[in-house]
């Protein structure tokens, strides 16, 4: 954290510099020296800022898909937004969540390892209450799940993973599958305590009930595809590839497109008076000699050079030269 000087401290510093008590050159030397920063090996930095930005974009889509899914299932107003994406040790994540919560442990092939979707009890119980005919209000006291509540939660959250699959489609095709549903975080050990995880926090509002949904993704799980989370890969993957049928249709349409083919005998400039005075038999002098080739244009582009002639009593032109692509005409 940067210390902010008060106005009195600033005045005292300026006065010391003016009186010679402090040397500006010494201050510059101290500033130029290498600063040592402590590094906590328990909080190893495994995700770059680039990775965090990509994870944020992916799970912003995930939040939109979840909003649509839960709104349809619960038939009430649901709003889900990404609040924060951060990296921290797995042990710190376990200590930060309630002792009694809803933990959806799942796998996502072809990724190896387990991940966790943690749902705050207020949100989870509001969903169950709504699905069982209630108004969607969480109970004031959280108790152990009954068998019916467990089955309801497993069903609704297992289908919610379809939204995660859709959100990750631009990076990798995954098949999330709910493995277990736990309520005590102390019994859930998916990675070692010091393993770095990416924690995606989603603020959730169901009617008047609010709470958090946290997605825990261990670094070791997505390490094989970390290169795909770069900005370059992200934008390349956004380019849509055309299907072969679409390409063939486009080719057929281009082949049928009509363009004017114009053979220019030459150019000439005359006045309006001369133009109005033209009559049958008059001769207009062009800027090209008889032995020079004619310019043949496709549309407004010069493509060929040719010679005039006749075929079966019809005017014709023979192509003598193909103008190289990219050649530009310049007026002399």
UniProtKB/TrEMBL annotation:
Domain of life: Bacteria
GO MF annotations in UniProt: cytoskeletal motor activity
Keyword list, A-Z: Bacterial flagellum, Cell membrane, Cell projection, Chemotaxis, Cilium, Flagellar rotation, Flagellum, Membrane
Topology with respect to the bilayer: Peripheral membrane protein
Primary location recorded for the protein, binned into one broad class: other
Domain Flagellar motor switch protein FliN-like C-terminal: 252-323
Signal peptide coordinates: none
CDD domains membership: FliM (cd17908)
Cellular location(s): Bacterial flagellum basal body; Cell membrane
Gene3D superfamilies linked: CheC-like, SpoA-like
InterPro entries registered for this protein in UniProt: CheC-like_sf (IPR028976), Flag_FliM (IPR001689), FliN-like_C (IPR001543), SpoA-like_sf (IPR036429)
One cellular component term from this protein's GO annotations in UniProt: plasma membrane
Gene Ontology BP term (one): bacterial-type flagellum-dependent swarming motility
Family that this chain belongs to: Belongs to the FliM family.
Annotated protein name in UniProt: Flagellar motor switch protein FliM
Species whose genome carries this gene: Paenibacillus selenitireducens
